[in-house]
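hey all, quick one before standup. I had two proteins in the batch that finished overnight and I want to keep them in one place so we stop losing track of which output belongs to which input. First protein below, input sequence then structure tokens straight from the run.
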Amino acid sequence: MITVISLGGSIVAPDGVDEAFLKAFVKLLRELVAEDAERRFIFVVGGGGPARAWQKAYRAIAEQSCDEQADWIGVMATRLNAQLIKAVLGDWCKEAVVTNPMEAVSFEGRVLVAAGWKPGFSSDYDAVLLAERFKAAQVINLSNIEQVYTADPRLDPNAKPIDKIAWPEFRAMVGNEWVPGKNVPFDPVASAHAQKIGLTVICAAGRNLENLKDLLRGKLFLGTTIG
């Protein structure tokens, strides 16, 4: 069984690298792999704090900034974070970090790590493409939010958490266009393709490892199911 996880850069490297989280995450991964010899994981890693910081610097310095260049900066940040994840996983991850999900991808280890591909979308889209290629039924999207809300809870005190939502309603919330650094629960471009291929996406808090353990074991969990 292959589990595809879009691992938000905001939990890997919110500012600098979150070493305590990564140690605990790898410990949980070892536990899950040890109890199921057939389970394999694909992690697609986001850019997080480094992406936002470098994009902000680019826009402040450049006389005329453009989205494509800002997006390339974000892509490179995802690749740095992904290389770190691959390195800490050691022998579990035998293949190089995947940077183009449309090319032939070998997957012989227990874990495959991927990063951003090119401008026009976030690493969420790469996760959807890899789920499609490896015939995974869902993508688990781990970020710094527990659930999708009806509005931004930081701005709207009446915002309510959503347990389940269909793709048309979710896409009406996030729109259809990607902007580098855009803060949405799941990338609009990725959402469109996920709806097209009938993929389910589960959004959950990445740092809540007990909740993640329940999710991966098929138990009750806190999160939002989109599909």
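OK second protein, same deal, sequence then tokens:
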Amino acid sequence: MTWFPFPCRANLVRFGLRCAAAALLAWSAGPQASAATFRIDETGTVVNAAVLNMRWHQLVPGRSSDNTVEGTVRVDVRLNLAPWINKPARIYMVLAPVSGERVKARWTTQGRLLPGSLSSGDRTLVFEGPAGPAVWNESILLTLETDGQRLVQLQTLNFYFEIEVSP
């Protein structure tokens, strides 16, 4: 799903939000080299804000100061795990590469997903164990940060989930 196109304006950076979250699920039984990876259907995932206001870490960013901007949003993730129900699995959250400045994401959770962080172009483990229930609902608090001075055009962030299962 596509998340967060974001424009930069003067001293305020805003992340416009479209759809939400992503992660991946992989099978923990058997060697990882033989595991098959599948994208998880996340129809029903909702980002709980149309626009995410970004804030500077420092009030007056400049050449020698911190130019980081940051914003936080709640995402209600809905994963369809029915094809892998009760199979040993690993779930990963993926943030696709972006053009321009690297984006960092970190999150806390309310349920079975692990809290964590990743940067654009990376993936990280968020769950290991038996897959289930068939439809998994989870709420995460997602914080995004990037260099506010290099954020000069609309960017689209693409988060998604995958699952790895042995053949």
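Flagging for whoever picks this up: The chain has a mean pLDDT of 76. The two ends are 26 Å apart (CA to CA).
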